[in-house]
Design brief:
Strands 1, 2, 3, 4, 5, 14, 15, 16 and 17 form a 9-stranded mixed sheet that branches. The protein has an 8-stranded parallel sheet with strand order 6-7-8-9-10-11-12-13. It is of the alpha/beta class. The chain is built from 12 helices and 17 strands.
Length: 455
């Protein structure tokens, strides 16, 4: 067995001092003190928090986005995730138009199986709706996919409102969750045209073409559709106060089954980043992601919502592209800059640092372990420290001090939006299925990640 001794255990019922034993990929025992046997491996966790492994339920790894392949494969992305303390990711498999969900799921398995350091599951993104779509969704549910995704933006991905309603009705019948990218695609398309016509071609044009109102309109529309269908929905990467207001309004009307996700970038970085020049005058392209970075007032509102318990999970929307050789292909038009940014490795450190003194270990556990496990059908096997639960563990050293830098990261991308941030706290030991996958931000070389069938 592996015995982690003397740590502060972050358990569902609260904090406790004690030891935890891992055996056969499960948590075998939790006690005030566990006496090791002669063949046991002992790790000292004194001064550390022992978390259930963190879960990132929004990633795009080894993915063609219509412009380019993402920089991170499942191999590099899950390795980076584990080095930061994340033991499970839920990635977006995408059934593009003309591709069945069965074919998409098989392709994502081909990309991921046998390559992963962290565990992995899949949402199924649906880019078109047809007579056979409901039957395909039922087959996905049988294959352990308990969540789906649709878009209200991007012409090659979005469904109509009527199609979205049909999808929501199927989600309801399957007791699944629909994740939705909430931006009004028609408004975005028109504003992109107007911004470019005004001569704004650089990265600063990106947020101008995707205003807060476009998000709020789509969030409100989604929630009314979900209410009609009686379906559960997850509003992904919430970025604005106006979008938050729409969620609050629906909840105040008594609507149930609304889950909210936001990301570290929308809690820490504002839209002045698009004006960064860097060495070649194009550094602002690093922050071209959708939705875009917002105003300080939006950041403040979302942070207040996190502290108030209105947010169910913190994910990354990790979708990495290199600044040089990928994003810089859009020098003549911000619309040709591949959308997305990296974050899979640094999410726990950014959250622990930026909310230091505001979120304690229990709150961090709820946002990054228990919350996503419950929303996405992995609880109680994952997201908690309990005997019989999966041995996905992050031993976190809150006293560690280190600087986030692209030069030392595991992510296979040439920048990080958090460059130079002095992080307070670090994943000291990370176990995936009871196997030590990372120590102090460095991988051990093991690849114990397995596919997660979700209920």
């Amino acid at each position: 067995m592996i015995i982690i001794k003397g740590g502060a255990l972050v358990c569902p019922e609260g904090l406790r001092r004690g030891d935890i034993a891992l055996d056969g990929g499960k948590i075998a025992r939790i006690a005030a003190s566990i006496e090791p046997g002669t063949d046991d491996t002992v790790e000292d966790a004194a001064g550390c928090w022992v978390f259930p492994g963190f879960i990132d339920a929004h990633t795009h790894l080894q993915c063609w986005t219509g412009m380019d392949w993402t920089a991170d494969s499942f191999e590099t992305g899950t390795r980076a995730a584990a080095c930061g303390g994340t033991t499970t990711v839920v990635d977006y498999a995408t059934a593009d138009r003309g591709v069945t969900m069965d074919e998409a799921l098989a392709e994502w398995h081909r990309r991921a199986d046998g390559t992963c350091t962290a565990n992995y599951g899949f949402h199924m993104a649906i880019a078109e709706w047809g007579e056979d779509s409901a039957a395909q969704m039922r087959r996905m549910r049988e294959a352990g996919v308990s969540s789906f995704k649709t878009y209200l933006a991007y012409d090659h991905l979005r469904l109509t409102d009527a199609e979205t309603l049909q999808c929501l009705e199927c989600v309801r019948d399957l007791d699944a969750v629909l994740c939705v990218h909430c931006e009004n695609g028609d408004i975005v398309n028109e504003l992109q045209r107007e911004v470019l016509a005004a001569g704004v071609t650089g990265p600063e044009g990106h947020p101008l073409s995707r205003p807060a109102e476009a998000e709020a309109d789509a969030v409100s529309r989604l929630l009314y559709l979900a209410n009609i269908a009686g379906a559960k929905v997850n509003v992904v990467h919430l970025s604005t106060r106006l979008g938050l207001d729409a969620i609050r309004a629906a909840r105040s009307r008594g609507q149930q089954g609304i889950f909210v996700e936001t990301c570290p970038q929308y809690l820490t970085l504002d839209d002045t980043r698009y004006l960064e020049e860097g060495d070649d005058g194009f550094a602002g392209a690093k922050y071209v992601m959708s939705p875009p970075l917002r105003k300080p007032a939006d950041i403040a509102a979302l942070r207040e919502a996190v502290l108030a318990g209105e947010v169910d999970s913190i994910a990354t929307d990790h979708c990495s592209f290199n600044l040089h050789g990928q994003k810089d292909r859009g020098r003549d038009s911000f619309t040709r800059i591949p959308n997305g940014g990296p974050g899979i490795e640094h999410r726990p450190a950014v959250m622990a640092t930026s909310f230091e003194g505001q979120l304690g270990p229990m709150e961090l556990m709820h946002l990054m372990s228990e919350g996503p496990a419950r929303v996405f059908g992995m609880w109680p096997a994952k997201g908690r420290l309990a005997e019989g639960a999966d041995a996905d563990i992050c031993v976190w050293d809150p006293a560690a001090r280190w600087t986030i830098s692209a030069a030392t990261q595991q992510q296979a991308v040439d920048y990080t939006p958090y460059e130079g941030l002095e992080a307070h706290g670090r994943a000291h030991l990370v176990y995936v299925n009871g196997v030590l996958a990372a120590r102090d931000g460095e991988p051990t070389g093991e690849k114990p990640g397995r596919y997660v069938e979700r209920g």
